[in-house]
Amino acid sequence: MVNPERKIKLCISGMDKIYDNGDGVRNINLDVYNGELVTMLGPSGCGKTTILRTIGGFLSIEKGDITIDGKSITGLPPEKRPTAMVFQSYNLWPHMSIYENLAFGLKLRKIPKDEIARRIEAMLELVKMSGSQKKYPGQLSGGQQQRIAIARSLLLQPEVLLLDEPFSALDAKIRMQMREELKKIQSELGITVVFVTHDQEEAMAISHRIVVMNKGKFEQVGTPTEIYDNPASKYVASFIGEMNFLNRDNKIIAVRPEDVKILRGFKEGAINGTVRTIMILGHYVDVNIQWGEEVLKSFIPRTELSDLEVGGKVHVEFGKTLEFPVEGSS
Ligand SMILES: Nc1ncnc2c1ncn2[C@@H]1O[C@H](COP(=O)(O)OP(=O)(O)O)[C@@H](O)[C@H]1O
Ligand SMILES: [Mg+2]
Fold first, then answer.
1. What fold does the segment set 8-235 form as a domain?
2. Mean pLDDT per segment of 10 residues, for the chain of length 330 residues?
3. Which of 40, 107, 159, 282 has minimal CB crowding within 10 Å?
4. Quick check: pTM over 0.90?
5. Among 26, 46, 54, residue to substitute to test ligand 1 (most atoms within 8 Å of Cβ)
6. Contact of 32 with 38, CB cutoff 8 Å
7. Hey, which of 17, 21, 23 would you mutate to test ligand 1's pocket, going by the most ligand atoms within 8 Å of its Cβ?
């Protein structure tokens, strides 16, 4: 995947955006490659939207620069930037038909009418909303409205598409479906996307790279696998996926639940415990083991559950473990 000849599409360098109250983001540096989908992931308030809005031109910056294809865009208003943004709330015009919603930006660009109709038809097909031209936003479900909002942005043929938690108002099932479709559309069009979410699973599912954010700063930038397997800090380790943390000898030992192996019966010198809870979550099982004062979480395949029951005596072995310092808990 890492191709040395990849072209940088979007570059943010030494960027500060600080609000009057002192909140904001400082010294942001990020390269996004052509055709890449990069997700900014972090809890509410960590600065994701702030960064996205500085790229889109809805916020001015105090320091640094933002370039697209090597050209600075920091002085340009949103409509002059080669970006398009989709928000959590669909932002469709309720009194306009889907066709009118989609045609609006193209008309401003003086594109001929039959060309507009042709592009809209093709775009609706891409987002699986063929034939909805005459409908109104109120007649569509949340997921369908968000497809239209994405279609509207894509029709502007932006160099970089900015998506701010676009699926977070949708039901879990629809959200998963939208993820898959976004991924498909993104790779078909080869468009560069900066995606924002607080949902680590969503970030893992769709991203080429993830930027894990904490309080206005980048904690780690890497592929989903890099971040999952080698989290750079305890913060990242706890934010991405599930993790057991054990305080030992002034260190924190971290173990993923899938690396906690459960063996039957007590064993001398081993980590002995009793089964506290068993939750069958489809193809795998979440087993909690009480070990003294601590609770260890283990994920095991359902086929390995067999005779395991709550209260049963077991001992555990760890597969891969990670270590983090206790102090400063980086
Ligand atoms: N217009 C604003 N004025 C002052 N502070 C703001 C403004 N918008 C956001 N903030 C603050 O900046 C920080 C980052 O906010 P935001 O970028 O919205 O985070 P996120 O999108 O990750 O939830 C938060 O502390 C938030 O309260
Ligand atoms: Mg936000």
1. Rossmann fold (3.40.50)
2. 78 96 95 98 96 97 96 95 89 95 93 96 94 96 93 94 93 92 93 97 96 96 97 95 92 96 94 96 95 95 92 96 78
3. 282
4. yes
5. 46
6. yes
7. 23
